[in-house]
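Issue 218. Parser rejects a valid record. Input:
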Amino acid sequence: MKKMNLFFLLIYFIIITTVIEIFVILFRLTDLKLEISRFQVISLMTGTGFTTGESELILGHPVRRKLATFLILFGAFSLAVIISSISTILSEDLRTKDIFYGAGGVLLAFVILKLKSVQTKLSKLFKQDMKQNIELGDLPIRDIFMSEKQDKLLNLHIYKGSSLFQKQINQVIHDHDQLEFVVLFIKRGELKLRRNIYHTKIHEGDQILLFGEKNVISKLFKNDIKIMEEKLKNTQHTPVSEHQSSP
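Output the parser choked on:
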């Protein structure tokens, strides 16, 4: 019985490893990086290490959430099976043939998913499913705003030395409606100002959420960005800039 349990554990670990690789491929097909995919898959299966900032990449994506749900359940089941095997409580009528069938099925799924043609079809299916069934609010901010390389989303902190300090945006940037950028809102304490934002006097401590072409924003707000980065660096904070985060 002990040899059978050891043999079963060996086969089951192979199955678990293959399942991990299968879901790494599936997560990669949703445009998640390889190293992030593997860590998050292992985290989900073991129930450890998933409280990282990268977990938002899973939670904020509906297709990945569905995959994660299966992994959590499979991980819980696998833990129970392994504990049972180690404790030698496995059923005496355990059949080696059934184990091989299960392992063969998982390995077959892995081989099929390694085919480029299958990966291409699944990737299109995931994206099509997102377009048809997902509300805009369910999508990560990167999928909404950062669709092209030149896109930039910046949360600009205003200080006394900023060119916008005690001024209106339309006073500093003329013909702003002709330029490739928009002001989404101004955050002032707990308030979010969305009306007449181009004609609102900017105060110290305000945060202006900007979206537009990277080169335009970098050029127009060059000095303000420099001041913000220096101030936040001195206070050991990091500027909130979506373009600096990678999926």
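Fixed in the parser; the record now loads. The first strand starts at residue 151 and ends at 157.
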